[in-house]
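Section 5: illustrative case.
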């Protein structure tokens, strides 16, 4: 698959300058997280930032850089249960992640 260029030049610069340190997130998935975070911050939603399921910190690095580049004074908290992901159910939306093996995280 050909890599996309994010529409937001600040996010494009962040994607270009930062290594993805694990195979758990694609650049497209990280771009979505950053784009939605940027929209939330621009909308003036108050409060600190919490990442649930940070694992080894792949997305954490990108979010931390985005917050740093914006000069955000908010605190950034990251957590992980290290118990893997629960099975998806009928209420879950979006494609399954067929190649992901939960065994190392359980
Ligand atoms: C696909 S990995 C996340 C990858 C990570 N965000 C990254 O950027 O590399 C999913 C993680 O979510 C964690 N997790 C699943 N359910 C959780 C919960 N209820 N609370 C906290 N962490 C959870 C798992 O232990 C696993 O480490």
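Designed sequence:
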């Amino acid at each position: 698959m050909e890599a996309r260029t994010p529409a937001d030049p600040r996010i494009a610069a962040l994607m270009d300058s930062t290594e993805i340190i694990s195979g758990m997130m694609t650049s497209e998935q990280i771009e979505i997280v950053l784009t939605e975070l940027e929209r939330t911050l621009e909308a003036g939603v108050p409060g600190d930032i919490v990442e649930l399921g940070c694992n080894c910190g792949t997305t954490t690095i990108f979010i931390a850089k985005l917050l740093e580049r914006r000069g955000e004074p908010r605190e950034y908290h990251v957590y992980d249960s290290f118990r893997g992901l629960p099975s998806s159910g009928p209420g879950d939306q979006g494609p399954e992640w067929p190649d992901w093996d939960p065994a190392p995280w359980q």
